[in-house]
Design brief:
The protein is of the alpha/beta class and 141 residues long. The chain has a single domain, classed as 3-Layer(aba) Sandwich (Glutaredoxin), CATH 3.40.30.10. Helices cover 27% and strands 28% of the residues. It contains four helices and seven strands; from the N terminus they run E-E-E-H-E-H-E-H-E-E-H. The strands form two sheets. A five-stranded mixed β-sheet has the order 3-5-4-6-7, with helices on one face. Strands 1-2 form a two-stranded antiparallel ribbon. The longest helix is centred in the middle third of the chain and has 16 residues. The protein is globular and about 40 Å long. The protein starts with a strand and ends with a helix. 35% of the residues are buried.
Length: 141
């Protein structure tokens, strides 16, 4: 199982561990605001990582992929902007071939928007922050 990520609270700057999976949403232990939920998952932890009622954005990426590295900070900002409503799950396709096969990752970056563990939208290739924000907003309605 992949360990949770450490994130800094956007409100009070305290460091918090956010779990890979949880039925609720992560909140700051100090000030109790919603935290950005951006975690790494692998072949073993993916199913539990996407098992949430929140909108999930699965980012299928690889370390050698320039466009993947280009959108990484955008996904970080979106996870902060939509804290409490969006979960970003990053999966390295080179290290996790079963997940890459499951989502038919033939080109990366590949983004899968999911609700209740079902894919509701797919984006292939790097997109601008405006485009990705618009998609997140549309799926949150």
């Amino acid at each position: 199982m992949t360990a949770g990520a450490i994130t800094t609270c956007p409100s009070c700057s305290k460091k918090n561990r956010v779990p890979v999976s949880s039925k609720g949403t992560p909140r700051c232990a100090s000030c109790h605001v919603d935290l950005p939920w951006l975690v790494d998952a692998n072949d073993d932890s993916l199913d539990t990582a996407i098992d949430t009622s929140q909108l999930v954005l699965v980012d299928l990426w690889a370390a050698w992929c320039g466009p993947c590295r280009q959108i990484a900070p955008i996904l970080q900002r979106l996870s902060t902007e939509f804290a409490g409503r969006l979960k970003v799950v990053k999966v390295d396709v080179d290290a996790n071939p079963l997940t890459a096969q499951k989502f038919e990752a033939r080109s990366i970056p590949l983004l899968k928007f999911m609700k209740n563990s079902h894919v509701v939208d797919t984006v292939v290739g790097a997109q601008s922050e405006h485009v990705l924000r618009t998609l997140v907003e549309r799926h949150l309605r």
